[in-house]
């Protein structure tokens, strides 16, 4: 099984640019309504426009803040590079780079432009 999380966002193209910069990802689809982001050729994240229903209906309740209670976690062996990309992107840091005493690895906790919590972790 491979996880492919999908986030509902108001501006797919802007969110795609942010995640491409922070994750070092590339667009695997592109467009105003839907995106698949790839790292090393594998899908790591899908983005879907909030108000577009397609065959399944809309993915986010209008007026409800996005990201409440959601953490999107990315583990990488190249954490230092991801941290540098995040800082260069001006990403909003929630919890700066630290060692998680429970997991024993390093983590950087960010908020994406839509309020989703994004955790980058690595050795």
Automatic annotation (TrEMBL):
Keyword DNA repair belongs to the record: no
Gene3D superfamilies on file: 2,3-Dihydroxybiphenyl 1,2-Dioxygenase, domain 1
Source species: Labedaea rhizosphaerae
Top-level taxonomic group: Bacteria
Any one GO molecular function term: lyase activity
Cited InterPro entries: Glyas_Bleomycin-R_OHBP_Dase, Glyas_Fos-R_dOase_dom, VOC_core
Ranges of residues in domain VOC: 1-123
Record keywords, A-Z: Dioxygenase, Lyase, Oxidoreductase
Protein name: Catechol 2,3-dioxygenase-like lactoylglutathione lyase family enzyme
Keyword Repeat in record: no
């Amino acid at each position: 099984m491979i996880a492919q999380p999908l986030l509902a966002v108001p501006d797919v193209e802007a969110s795609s640019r942010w995640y491409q910069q922070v994750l070092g990802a590339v667009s695997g689809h592109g467009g105003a309504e839907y995106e698949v982001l790839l790292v090393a050729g594998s899908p790591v994240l899908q983005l879907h426009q909030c108000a577009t229903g397609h065959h399944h209906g809309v993915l986010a309740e209008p007026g409800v803040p996005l990201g409440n209670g959601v953490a999107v976690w990315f583990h990488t062996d190249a954490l230092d590079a991801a941290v540098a990309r995040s800082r260069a992107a001006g990403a909003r840091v929630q919890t700066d780079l630290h060692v998680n005493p429970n997991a024993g690895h390093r983590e950087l906790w960010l908020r994406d432009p839509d309020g989703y919590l994004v955790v980058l972790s690595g050795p």
